[in-house]
Amino acid sequence: MKKILVTGGAGFIGSHVVRLFAKKYPDYKIVNLDALTYAGNLENLNDVESLSNYSFVKGDITDETFIDQLFAKEHFDAVIHLAAESHVDRSIMDPLSFVKTNILGTAVLLNAARKYWQDMNGKLFYHVSTDEVYGSLGESGFFTETTPYDPHSPYSASKASSDHLVKAYFDTYGLPVVISNCSNNYGSHQFPEKLLPLMINNIVHSKPLPVYGKGDNVRDWLWVEDHARAIDVIFHKGKLGETYNIGGFNEWKNLDIVHLLCKIMDKKLNRAEGESAKLITFVKDRAGHDKRYAIDATKLNKELGWTPSLQFEEGLDKTIDWYLANGEWIENVTSGAYKDYYKDQYVSR
Ligand code: NAD
Ligand code: TDX
Q1: From ligand 2's centre to the CA of 181, what distance in Å?
Q2: Which of 52, 208, 229, 332 is the most exposed place for a label (fewest CB within 10 A)?
Q3: Ligand 1 surroundings by CB, under 6 angstroms
């Protein structure tokens, strides 16, 4: 029996990782630790909460005493660390909370693992990170595992720092670690501050669709369940001390993706063709906006045999259907503090 601590398991990607591990590995015990910030929601885990190998603990990864006590009590074999402040625009408004959670929180977890894993044999600290640590690409080229770090936003700088801490604990203490850096995820249960769920929600309500700058920034999109599958593969087969890039070889300009969403949703909502696209509104660009991300996931494919399972159009279709069928979920997560966030971020932009 392996006991795995998943941090941030009530968030978007974390809930998919918890679901995959708890269902696929009934002999693993999954402990989900989450502070339930605005981004964490136990409703994301309705279908796993009754499983006997799953439990939830509410707590903050920056609370050293609490984390030490948890490690002393639970004797984890592995950590899959996803808890983070994850939204670039929020990091521009409030950088210090990103420094606290993403850097200090990761350091507290690493340090607890170092202290409580007397025998490091068979242990694993898996850090889930982002392609944004590599900075921004021009028209061509890809991020590989050896691309130098060059983060630009407070979010990506905090994730870069946490990656460096993970590597330092491997080099200095021999802590068994692995890191993956993934491109933009999309899918069910994503908080509607990120591009795709925000646009889907606004199209449903016929609200303006705020495209930053000219909409010509490029992102490489991956279905969240394929990210969770990659984490499964790397967790079981990844080489200690290594980094693996995860991406879909699926680049889109923001404006093109918003047009595609509008086209699909016009059909699904029985609107005239072109009706939703009229909502597109160009707004002030994001400060320090990275131009293009594109991941080269060859290492993960060649060494560990992972490939994405879904084509983008199919994944987008499933994603839109999920949001249309889960109006109550969207209503719940957007009814409170989201309104203030939206006003601060978009109303006078
Ligand atoms: P999310 O914002 O949806 O979820 C983050 C979760 O962490 C939430 O459940 C939140 O409650 C929890 N959390 C935040 N602060 C905490 C704290 N101090 N203590 C305990 N829990 C805390 O984020 P996400 O999009 O699911 O991203 C998960 C991880 O994957 C992050 O580390 C992020 O950097 C990384 N990542 C995200 C993407 C993406 O496209 N979303 C891509 C690559 C990597
Ligand atoms: O309203 C919007 N309008 C807009 O044009 C929003 C929210 C975004 N955008 C643009 C900015 C980006 O170029 O869309 C693109 C995607 O934006 P986000 O969804 O905020 O993602 P991004 O900034 O690319 O970062 C994401 O990918 C890497 C995740 O939020 C990170 O957690 C992950 O690490």
Answers
A1: 16
A2: 52
A3: 7-8, 10-14, 34-37, 39-40, 60-62, 82-86, 101, 105, 128-130, 159, 182, 184-185, 191
